[in-house]
Amino acid sequence: MKNVENRCCLQLSTLGVKTTIIHPATEKHIIKYSSQNSYMLDETPDIYNNIVVPHITSDKFDLQWVYNIIDHKSESDRILVEDTDPINGFVVVPDLKWNGDLETLYFLAICNRRELKSIRDLTAEHLPLLNKIKATTINAIKSKYGLDGSQLRIYLHYQPSFYHLHIHFTYLRHEAPGILAERAHLLTTVISNLELISDYYQKATIPFVVRENDSLFEELAKQNLLKKRDGKQIP
């Protein structure tokens, strides 16, 4: 299966424009890029286990494009660095949003382990993986682009845009989408939390933003955890 998100090159007169074409566009893609209300939820472990996990499990999130990258079926010519270890390995590729300009540098480190979906799955067991991703990717970026680790913003999203553990590396000067406090969790903080409490992310209440047209919002509204801005409940 080919990636559904592709880049295109435009004429010189349109160099200020970057376009992402998604084909075929599913309902999830349409919802993702539509203007809609957003809401903050304080997700307790109970909410995660009883509502979010069943949602992730039952909803069909297409991860084939991620597996294609890990298996070298796509993007193999764009890999910055990788580690093929099945437990603590990963692959680092440019994010599709990066236009190649150093000012907007943006890489994704995608772990090889397919059972890890988000920070909720992380425990102290995964510290070697996280530390290796951090050190290896920082060194690779410094070697190729001359940026020191102190010039990088390194973080995970919660909720993530796709449920396969990945870590974002961006140039600190670039105000990339998703860097606000309600979504971005700095990798250094994640590592520190796990060093202090091995199952921190199984016990913590984690706030996150959910959009009104997201199917997860419907599940949360049915349990009276959220409601639309006009006050109407989901029947």
UniProtKB/TrEMBL annotation:
Xref: Pfam families: DcpS_C
Compartments in which it is found: Nucleus
Entry annotated with the keyword Hydrolase: yes
Catalytic reactions of this protein: a 5'-end (N(7)-methyl 5'-triphosphoguanosine)-ribonucleoside in mRNA + H2O = N(7)-methyl-GMP + a 5'-end diphospho-ribonucleoside in mRNA + 2 H(+)
Top EC class of this enzyme: hydrolase
Organism the protein comes from: Dendroctonus ponderosae
Similarity section: Belongs to the HIT family.
GO cellular component: nucleus; P-body
One MF term in the entry's GO annotations: RNA 7-methylguanosine cap binding
InterPro entries linked to this entry: DcpS/DCS2, HIT-like_sf, Scavenger_mRNA_decap_enz_N
EC number: 3.6.1.59
Protein name in the entry: m7GpppX diphosphatase
GO biological process: deadenylation-dependent decapping of nuclear-transcribed mRNA
